[in-house]
Amino acid sequence: MERKVLGRGLEALIPIDSRVSHERVQMLKISQIQASRFQPRLNFSPEKIDELANSIKEKGVIQPILVRTIDADHYELIAGERRLRAAKKLGFTELPAIIRRVADADLLELSIIENIQREELNVLEEAKAYQRLGQEFGLAQETIAERVGKDKSSISNLLRILKLPNVVHDYISKNMITFGHAKALLSIHDEKRQIRFCKEIVQKGLSVRQAELGASSRSAYRIKGTKSEAKDMHIKNLEDQLQHALGTKVRIFPGKKRGKIEIEYYSLEDLDRVLNLFNINH
Fold this sequence. Notes:
Layout: H1 9-13, E1 26-29, E2 33-34, H2 46-59, E3 65-71, E4 74-79, H3 81-90, E5 94-99, H4 104-117, H5 123-137, H6 141-148, H7 152-160, H8 166-173, H9 179-185, H10 191-204, H11 208-218, H12 229-246, E6 250-254, E7 259-263, H13 268-277
Parallel strand pairs: 2-4, 3-5
Antiparallel strand pairs: 1-5, 3-4, 6-7
C-alpha cells in the first residue's frame, strides 16, 4: 500500500532559491558541518549507523545531504544526520551537499516531517518536537497538525504524554512500551502508581488492551484520610464534571479544611482557551 505523504513535504519546506536556475551539488568538508540544533531525534541506533556505513562504503553517498549557511566557512545540517555520522565513522573528510536557505521554524518543521516520513521518531521525541514548535515558534496546535499531516487531537494526545514521569519516558524512549500503553497510564492520577504499573506492563508483556483494563481498575481515586468510598466517588464525579466543562484534565486535592484544584494545559494556546472559559483576559 502506498504510504501517505505527511505535511507539505521537503521541497515545499526548503524551496530552491528563485535566483538560482539550478542547484549544484558541492563537496563540503565534514569539519565545516555541524549537526542541527533543531534535530528532534534524541537517539540514533549504532546498528543502523553501521548498516548505512557499510552501504556507503560499497555504493558511495547516493543522496547529498542538505545544509544551510552559518557563516563563510560553516554550515548547519538540514537533513542527513545519519549519512553524516556514517561518513565520520568511515573516516571521510568530505560529503556531497546542497546548500539552501531555511528559517529556524521551517528547519524544525522539516526535521520533524522528514523523521516521521521515515518512521524514525519515537512518540516521545515526536511530542517534544511538537512542544518546541509551540513554545519556541508560537505555532498553534491546529497549525502544527496541518503542517505535519495529522489531526489536532493526535497532536494534543502526543503532548499529554509529556506529563508522564521521567521513568515512563525512559521506557518509551527504549521502545519498551508503546504510545497506546502511555495513553493508558495517563488515566492513573498518581505518579507512583503510574510508574509501578508501567513496570508491570513491561515485566508481564501486557498488550495495550490489557494495560487499558489494568489502568482503569487502578484509576479509582483514593483520598488519604477520607472516611468513606462515597466521598471519593463524589470527588471523582466533580473532577469529571470539571474536565467535561474545561476540556482538559482536572484533579481535586481535598484536605480537612482546605484543598486545591489542579487544571492542566498542554500549550500556551490551550492555556488561553482555558482562561477564556473563565472570562480572564491577560
